[in-house]
Every structure is written in structure tokens, then in C-alpha cells.
Amino acid sequence: QNCHMGVDKSHDIKKKRLKTYLILNATVLIMAVITVVFRNFTVSHNELHILSLFTKCPSTLLFHIYCPICGGTRAIAALMRLDISEAVKCNAFVVFLSVVFIYYDISSLISIIRGKDRVLYISKYMKIAVFLFLSVFFIVRNIALVYGYDYLGDL
């Protein structure tokens, strides 16, 4: 009978994890559907540019360079409008992270379904890949400034 209690307990844990996962993802999915349906009402790139005048990144104010997250809000707004090219132009790192998050979200679901104890595992290779992408993006985007390419127009 003790053996069955252990199975029932692990089954309950699996059900709780799956329920939590489904609630969180259903919320995100509903928000995404609402955004896509009403995407004509989301804030455009130009409107966000006007809003950005009120909040400046310290790296743009002090050093006249872009930090790796500058343009991230505009990139997310473009992703919500399903305008991938605009999102990449605003901030490729945010788009890259979105893909990574989707990958880990699906991976977590698979782990929950399989009943694994460790639901979210981020390998050292993924951490290195994110750090390298972040570093290269930061360097390339600021070198582009030297050559006059400033898509965001904040500098």
C-alpha cells in the first residue's frame, strides 16, 4: 500500500505541475490572441519613439551607445503585431530570447508530461549561446552607430 501512495503522490504532483503550466500558457495564449485580433490598435513604432523621449536608457544618456536591451519594448510591440522584421530591427536580442523562451516552454511541457522531477533545465551551452549572442549583438549594433546606422533614432 505504501508503494501506491508514492505513485499517487507523484501523479498528484504531475497533475499540479501540468495544471499550473496550462493555466500560465492559456493566459499567455489568450493575451496573444487578443493582441493579434486587435493588432491595429497596438502602439506603432513611431508612437513608441515619442514615448521613449520620456525615459532614456542610462547608457544612451551617459555613453551615447545602446545597451543590449534598448529598443526591447518596440521589439515586443512589433512581435505582438507579428511584424518580425521590425522586431529584429528594433532589437534582435529580444527576438532571440523570445525564441529561447518558446523552446523552454515547450521543453517544460514535455518534461511535465513525462513526469520528470526537473522541469526546467538550462544547459551551460544555452547559457553560453545567450551570452555570446548578447555580446555580439551589443558590439555590432554600436559599431553600426559609428557608420551612421541608427535604426532606433534615439542617439
3D architecture notes:
The chain is mainly α and 155 residues long. The chain has six helices and no strands. α1 runs antiparallel to α5. The protein is elongated and about 65 Å long.
Main attributes of the structure:
mainly alpha; 155 residues; 6 helices
Give a quick precis of the structure.
The chain has about 160 residues and is an all-alpha fold. The chain has six helices and no strands. The longest helix has about 35 residues.
Distance between the termini: 70 Å
Mean pLDDT across every amino acid position: 80
- Share of helix, binned: over 70%
Question: Helix/strand/pairing class, anyone?
Answer: mainly alpha
Kindly state the number of beta strands: 0
Radius of gyration: 20 Å
Give the arrangement of secondary structure elements.
Blueprint: H1 2-37, H2 45-52, H3 58-62, H4 72-80, H5 84-114, H6 124-146
